[in-house]
Design goal:
The complex is a heterotrimer of chains A (about 270), B (about 260) and C (about 270). Chain A is built from eleven helices and no strands. Chain A is an all-alpha fold. A six-stranded mixed beta sheet of chain B has the order 6-7-8-3-9-10, sandwiched between helices. In chain B, strand 4 and strand 5 form a beta hairpin. The two termini of chain B are about 35 Å apart. Chain B contains ten helices and ten strands. By secondary structure, chain C is an all-alpha fold. Chain C has a single domain, classed as MetI-like fold. Chain C is built from ten helices and no strands. Classes of the chains: A mainly alpha (about 270), B alpha/beta (about 260), C mainly alpha (about 270). Chains in contact: A-B, A-C, B-C.
C-alpha cells in the first residue's frame, strides 16, 4: 500500500514537542543539573583506602553474623516488650495531645492567632527526625524509655495532628450550622457536630500511628532512648554481630506482622 | 487471501469456544462477523494474530501458516496484520503522532523508537493517512484529549501505518455514538477498497453490517452458521444466529444480545 | 398500643456494639496499665523531666551563629547526600520494580527475588543500614549515601511496581498486535503509563531522604548530624539551637521545592 502514497514535494517534519518549551530553560536546567551532580560527587570526601578495605570488613561482619545467635532470647524479648510499652504509651499520650492541637490548627474552627500557633507546633514536630528529638531528650532526661516515650509523643503529634487538622477542615459545615441553630453551646457543637465526622479517620490514624511508633521505637533506641534499638546498639557496639543479626531479623519479622495486623484492622474499619 | 481451516480454541478444559471452524476470505473484501456475545467472534479475530493461542487447526495468510510461527516469525507476521480495537487501546499519555507511529514499531530500530526520531517517510505517510481520516491537525495533541470518534481514527491510522495485508476490527464502533459509528464504518469500507485490503469486522449492529459490508458471517457457539450476502440475511437466518435453539448454558447471553439487534 | 416506657427506651448502640466498645476500651486501658506498671522507668526522673527540658531550652538561647559557615556547608553536604542517593536509588529501583510486578516479571523466581529485595530493603531502617555501612566503609558520606540508597530502593520499587501492576492492559495488547518487540512494548505502552507515578514517588522519596539525611551523622554517616552530634557532645547548646533552626529551614525548603516540582511535573 506504500505504492499509492504519492511523495509530497517536501516531506513534512515532525519532532516531539520538548518537555520544556523554552530551549534556554531546557538546556539551562539540564546543564545545571549535570554540573551540580559532577560537583556534588567531587565534593564528597571519599576515603578510597578505607573503602577498598570495605569488602574485607563486610566479609568479616557477615562472617561474624552467621548464623544468627538467639541464645540471649531473654534480653531480646525484654527489649521488645520495652519497645511495645514505649509505643503504646507514646501513642496514647500523642493522641491525647494531637486532638486539641488539630483543632487549633484547623482554619475553619480556630481563630487566626490560635491557628498559627497550632500550625507552628505541627511544623516543628514534623521537621525534626525522631532521632534528633530523641538525642535531645536523652540529654535532658537521661538514657532510657522516658526519652523514647517523649520522642515518639512528639513524632505522633506531627503526623496525627496534621492529618486530623486536614480532616477537620474538610468536614461538612452544614451539620455544625444545624446544631448551632438549635442554640447549642460550642463544646456540645464540637461533640455532636464535629467529632462524629472525624472519628473514623481518628481511629484509623491511631492504629497506623501505633504501628509507626513501634517501628520508630526500634530506631530511636539507637541513640539511647530505650527499647530494642538500644539492645541492638549495644550488641553492635560489642561486635556481637551474630546477636545483632538475630535482633535485626526479629525486628523485621515484628514489623511485617504489625504492618499486616494494622492493615487488616484499618481495612475493616474504613 | 486468508484461509482458516478446522480451527479449535479451548480455554482450559472447558467447552471449546471455537469448534472446527473453517473460513476463507479472498483479497479486497469486507466481511462482517455477527453473533451474540460469547459466540467466539473476538476469539476468532485474536487467533488470527495470535493474541490468543489457537488450540489446533490452521490459519494461512498469503501462503504463510500463522499457527506454527515462533517469536521472531510471529512478530514479523503481526507487522502485516493490522488490528482495530473496541476500546481504541491508544496510549493515552502519548501524542497522536506517537500513537500512530506505534504501527511502525515492528519496522524501526530501537533507538529511533526511544528517541522519537522516526524515519522521514514514516512521518510523511502518517500525515497523509491522518489527513485522509481528518485528524492531521491533532498530531501534537495527547491521545486522551480527543473525542471517541477521533480516537478510533487514530486507532485506524495506527493499523494502516503497519502497511498491513489484512485488517482485523474487533467491534470498532461499539464504544461510539450512532453517528460517529456510521462514520467509522464508512471509513473502513472506503479504505478497504482504496487500499485493496481484506477487512474482517466483528460487529454487533446488524443494520450497519448489512449496509457497509459485502459479506456477512454469522457465528453461534463457536461455529459459522450463516455465510452469505447481506441480502440473504433474512429473519430466519437472524433468528438462528441470535436466538434459535439454545445450548442452555449460553442462553442468557444470547437473549440479552437480541435486544441490540433491534437498534 | 400498650408499649411500656421501658420498651421504648432509646440507646445509641445495640447490646453487641456496646459490649464491643466496652471490650475495646478495656483492652486499651489494660494495655496502658500494663505498660505503665511494668516499664522500666525511674519515676522521680519523670517528675523532674519538665524542669530538665526547660533548663535545656534556656541554655539554648540565644542561638550562637558563630559556626554558621560550617553549618551551611554541612547543610549542603546533607542536601547532596539526599539528592545523589535518591538519584541512584531511582535507577536501581526500576529493574526491581519490573521484576516484582506480577504482570511484567519474567517468571516466578524473579518475582520472589524482587519481593525479597523490596521487603528486606523496606524493613530495615535507614539508620540501621547506616550503622552497617559505617562499619564497612568507615565513617563518612559514602556510608550515608549507600544507606539511603538501600532504604529508598524498597520504597521506590514497591510503589513503582504497584503502578506497573495497575496499568491499562489494552494498549499493551494493541502494541503486541503490531509486532513490536517486548522492549518496544515496554517503552511505548508501559513507560508512559508509569511516568507520572515515577516522578511523584521519586520526588516524595527525595523529600523523605532529606529528612533522613539530617540524622545520618549521629551514627557517623555524614551530613549535618555530624556537627550536631559534635555540638551536643561539647554541650555547646547555643550552637545546637542554630543547627536545629538550620535543619528546620532545610526541611521546610525541601518540602516547598518538592511540592513545587510535583505541581510542575505532573
Amino acid at each position: 500500500m506504500s505504492s499509492d502514497s504519492t511523495p509530497a514535494a517536501t516531506p513534512r517534519q515532525w519532532r516531539k514537542a520538548p518537555f520544556i518549551a523554552n530551549p534556554w530553560l531546557r538546556w539551562g536546567l539540564l546543564i545545571g543539573f549535570v554540573i551540580y551532580a559532577a560537583w556534588a560527587i567531587t565534593t564528597l570526601p571519599f576515603d578510597w583506602a578505607r573503602i577498598s578495605q570495605g569488602m574485607e570488613r563486610a566479609a568479616r561482619i557477615f562472617g561474624g553474623a552467621f548464623p544468627p545467635n538467639f541464645d540471649r532470647g531473654g534480653l531480646l524479648l525484654k527489649g521488645f516488650l520495652e519497645s511495645l510499652q514505649i509505643a503504646i504509651l507514646a501513642t496514647l499520650l500523642g493522641l491525647a495531645l494531637s486532638v486539641p492541637i488539630a483543632f487549633m490548627a484547623a482554619r475553619n474552627i480556630a481563630a487566626l492567632p490560635v491557628y498559627l500557633l497550632g500550625r507552628i507546633l505541627i511544623i516543628v514536630a514534623r521537621s525534626f527526625h525522631p532521632v534528633i528529638v530523641a538525642i535531645l531528650f536523652v540529654k535532658a532526661v537521661g538514657f532510657g524509655p522516658v526519652a523514647g516515650i517523649l520522642t515518639l509523643t512528639i513524632y505522633s503529634i506531627g503526623f496525627v495532628a496534621k492529618m486530623l487538622a486536614e480532616r477537620i477542615e474538610e468536614i461538612d459545615w452544614g451539620q455544625v450550622e444545624a446544631l448551632r441553630s438549635t442554640g447549642t453551646g460550642s463544646f456540645t457543637v464540637l461533640q455532636f457536630g464535629v467529632l462524629p465526622q472525624i472519628m473514623p479517620r481518628q481511629i484509623g490514624l491511631s492504629i497506623y500511628q501505633l504501628d509507626s511508633n513501634l517501628r520508630a521505637s526500634a530506631v530511636v533506641g539507637i541513640v539511647g532512648a530505650g527499647g530494642i534499638g538500644s539492645t541492638l546498639m549495644n550488641a553492635f557496639g560489642r561486635y556481637d554481630y551474630d546477636f545483632a543479626l538475630a535482633i535485626t531479623l526479629v525486628i523485621i519479622a515484628v514489623i511485617l506482622v504489625s504492618e499486616a495486623i494494622s492493615g487488616r484492622i484499618r481495612k475493616n474499619l474504613w | 487471501m486468508l484461509r482458516i481451516s478446522r480451527l479449535v480454541k479451548r480455554y482450559g478444559n472447558g467447552e471449546p469456544v471455537l469448534k472446527d471452524l473453517d473460513l476463507e476470505v479472498p483479497g479486497e473484501s469486507v466481511v462482517s462477523i455477527i453473533g451474540a456475545s460469547g459466540a467466539g467472534k473476538s476469539t476468532l479475530l485474536r487467533c488470527i494474530n495470535r493474541l490468543v493461542e489457537p488450540t489446533s487447526g490452521s490459519i494461512v495468510l498469503n501462503d504463510m501458516e500463522l499457527t506454527t510461527l515462533k517469536r521472531d516469525g510471529l512478530r514479523k507476521a503481526r507487522r502485516r496484520i493490522g488490528m482495530i480495537f473496541q476500546g481504541f487501546n491508544l496510549v493515552d499519555r502519548l501524542t497522536v503522532m506517537e500513537n500512530v507511529q506505534c504501527g511502525r514499531l515492528g519496522y524501526i530500530p530501537y533507538w529511533r523508537a526511544a528517541l522519537r526520531r522516526y524515519p522521514a517517510e514514516d512521518i510523511e505517510r502518517a500525515f497523509q493517512l491522518m489527513e485522509r481520516v481528518g485528524i492531521a491537525h491533532y498530531a501534537n495533541k495527547r491521545a486522551d484529549e480527543l473525542s471517541g470518534g477521533e480516537r478510533q481514527r487514530v486507532g485506524v491510522v495506527r493499523a494502516l501505518m503497519q502497511d498491513p495485508d489484512i485488517l482485523l476490527a474487533d467491534e470498532p464502533t461499539a464504544s461510539l455514538d450512532p453517528v460517529t459509528s456510521r462514520q467509522i464504518m464508512e471509513l473502513l469500507q472506503r479504505l478497504a477498497s482504496e487500499l485493496h485490503l481484506p477487512v474482517l469486522i466483528n460487529i454487533h449492529n446488524v443494520s450497519e453490517a448489512k449496509e457497509f459490508t459485502q459479506r456477512i458471517v454469522g457465528m453461534r457457539f463457536g461455529r459459522i452458521i450463516f455465510d452469505g450476502k447481506p441480502g440473504d440475511l433474512d429473519q430466519d437466518a437472524m433468528d438462528s444466529v441470535y436466538s434459535g435453539t439454545s445450548e442452555d448454558q449460553e442462553a442468557p447471553a444470547a437473549a440479552s444480545s437480541t435486544d441490540k439487534v433491534a437498534t | 398500643m400498650k408499649e411500656s416506657i421501658a420498651d421504648r427506651a432509646w440507646s445509641r448502640h445495640t447490646r453487641r456494639q456496646r459490649w464491643g466498645r466496652l471490650a475495646g476500651m478495656l483492652f486499651i486501658a489494660a494495655a496502658a496499665a500494663w505498660s505503665l506498671t511494668t516499664i522500666d522507668i525511674i519515676w522521680p526522673w519523670v517528675w523532674d523531666a519538665p524542669a530538665q527540658i526547660g533548663d535545656l531550652f534556656k541554655r539554648m538561647v540565644p542561638p550562637d551563629v558563630s559556626a554558621i559557615s560550617a553549618i551551611t556547608w554541612a547543610l549542603i553536604e546533607t542536601l547532596n547526600i539526599a539528592t545523589i542517593a535518591t538519584f541512584f536509588a531511582v535507577f536501581l529501583s526500576l529493574p526491581v520494580a519490573y521484576i516484582s510486578a506480577q504482570n511484567t516479571t519474567p517468571n516466578r523466581a524473579t518475582l520472589w527475588l524482587g519481593r525479597f529485595i523490596l521487603v528486606s530493603s523496606r524493613s530495615v531502617n535507614t539508620l540501621i543500614w547506616a550503622l552497617l555501612f559505617v562499619a564497612i566503609f568507615g565513617p563518612g558520606v559514602l556510608a550515608g549515601i549507600v544507606a539511603i540508597m538501600f532504604r529508598s530502593l524498597g520504597f521506590l520499587g514497591k510503589l513503582i511496581g504497584e503502578a506497573i501492576e495497575e496499568i491499562d492492559r489494552r494498549p499493551v495488547e494493541a502494541l503486541e498486535a503490531t509486532g513490536a518487540s517486548r522492549a518496544k512494548v515496554i517503552l511505548y505502552a508501559i513507560v508512559p503509563q508509569v511516568v507520572p507515578t515515577f516522578f511523584a514517588v521519586s520526588i516524595l522519596r527525595w523529600d523523605i531522604n532529606l529528612r533522613e539525611s539530617t540524622v545520618l551523622g549521629l551514627v557517623g554517616a555524614g551530613g549535618i548530624g555530624v556537627i550536631l552530634q559534635g555540638a551536643i557532645d561539647m554541650l555547646d547548646w547555643r550552637t545546637v539551637a542554630t543547627i536545629l533552626l538550620a535543619i528546620i529551614v532545610l526541611v521546610i525548603a525541601g518540602e516547598a521545592l518538592a511540592a513545587w516540582l510535583r505541581k510542575k511535573v505532573i
